[in-house]
C-alpha cells in the first residue's frame, strides 16, 4: 500500500511543477533548462512520496531493459524514419520495419517498451 500523504503535502509537491511549466516558452535556454530540472526533481519527489517501495524496486529492475532497447532504434535510425512521415502523424509498424530492415515483432516489442517509458508514443 502506498504511503498516505496529505492534500497539503501533495499541493506543496505539485507547486514547483506548476511554476516551472510557466517558463517552458522561456526566451533563454538557461531558463528552460532550470525549469526542466525543477520539474524533473519535483516529479521524482512526488513519485517517491506516493509509490510503494516494492513497486519502485520492480520499476528499477525493469529499467535495465530500457538502455538495451535503445540500441536498435538508434542503429536502425527509427526516429529519422518516423520524422519522414507526413506531418509527423506516425507510421504503421510494417512501414517502419520495411524502411529499417528489422524484424517487425522485435521492433514492435522494443517500441512498445520505449513508448511505455515516454520515448516514443503509439497513436
Automatic annotation (TrEMBL):
Q: Name one GO molecular function term.
A: methyltransferase activity
Q: For this UniProt record, give its keywords in alphabetical order, as a comma-separated list.
A: Methyltransferase, S-adenosyl-L-methionine, Signal, Transferase
GO annotation (BP), single: methylation
Task: Report the leader peptide range.
Answer: 1-20
Methyltransferase as a keyword of this entry, yes or no, is yes
Top-rank taxon of the source lineage equals Eukaryota
Statement: the UniProt record of this protein carries the keyword NAD = no
Protein name as it appears in the record: Uncharacterized protein
- Top-level taxonomy: Eukaryota, Fungi, Dikarya, Basidiomycota, Agaricomycotina
Amino acid at each position: 500500500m502506498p504511503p498516505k500523504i496529505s492534500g497539503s503535502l501533495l499541493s506543496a509537491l505539485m507547486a514547483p511543477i506548476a511554476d516551472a511549466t510557466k517558463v517552458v516558452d522561456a526566451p533563454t535556454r538557461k531558463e528552460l533548462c532550470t525549469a526542466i530540472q525543477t520539474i524533473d526533481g519535483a516529479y521524482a519527489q512526488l513519485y517517491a512520496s506516493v509509490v510503494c517501495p516494492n513497486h519502485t524496486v520492480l520499476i528499477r529492475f525493469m529499467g535495465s531493459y530500457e538502455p538495451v532497447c535503445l540500441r536498435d532504434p538508434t542503429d536502425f535510425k527509427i526516429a529519422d524514419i518516423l520524422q519522414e512521415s507526413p506531418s509527423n502523424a506516425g507510421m504503421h509498424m510494417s512501414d517502419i520495419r520495411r524502411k529499417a530492415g528489422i524484424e517487425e515483432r522485435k521492433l514492435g516489442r522494443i517500441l512498445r517498451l520505449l513508448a511505455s517509458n515516454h520515448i516514443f508514443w503509439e497513436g
